[in-house]
What does this fold into?
Amino acid sequence: MPENLFKVNKEEYMLPGNRSCQGCGLSLAYRYALKALRENTILTVPASCLTVLHGLYPTTSVTIPCLNCTFASTAASAAGLVAGLAATGRTDTTVVAFAGDGGTYDIGIQALSGAAERGTDFIFVCYDNEGYMNTGTQRSSATPMGAITTTTPILTKEQNKKDMLKIMEAHDIAYIATTTPAYPIDLYDKFVKAKRIKGTRYMQIHVPCPPGWGYPPRDTVKMARLAIETGVFVLFEMENGKFRFTGRSKSLAEKGNRLPLINYIERQDRFKKISDEQLHSMQKFIDNKWNEYQKKAEG
It folds into this structure.
């Protein structure tokens, strides 16, 4: 049964004084993810904003054991942890890899695909802030069309965002779920569920980033909710190939009352040079993705 607001673990595993930016969407999501994962967990994290949040050795703001690994080896290091725990008989410990979109969509995809193909028993979490934010807002394949980054040569990115969720679905893994810091109980419930499932589990968190996206830090939750309301990001889960909408996305799918994309775009400086043609193309991309999801939900 899902947890509810009154059953959320009261322990805190992310302590005050971390080094994340003001209004960081990752810090909000990470707090609830750790509450759901609890003590018998080992983390592995590549170079990313999350290593900044954890802090510099020998101090840290997180109480759960964490292995820092190279950018490309997140899933490989997780597989090694799984094998080591199995060899020592520690079958009750969950291995969780936490990587950004750069370490998932781009640099880490080879190791992730290999681990998923083998069915490695771990949770891989992609916190997706749609760019290499830790190193100065460079473009990743998760960056949406029309966004400005420091490495888009002609002002804005011309390509749509890579569909990493479809890539992971093609691996036929045990569990796939999407979450957002805008709805922490939905996030918490899905991590509780993922911890109980065996095999490869893939979680994707849509993480607004104030300095990278160009909006006031106080608006992080508002921005995360607008991503849901406009259909830019969809809340769902797939267990053994069975798709279902969850949370706010479920009601949006039933009522068909998504907001136009412009409501989300106009609040972010990174889209200040988006063209009308790109805006139209993005809206069509989102509408097509919604139609695809609705067909999956219908069976």
User: Anything to note?
Assistant: The chain has one domain: 25-298. The chain has a mean pLDDT of 95.
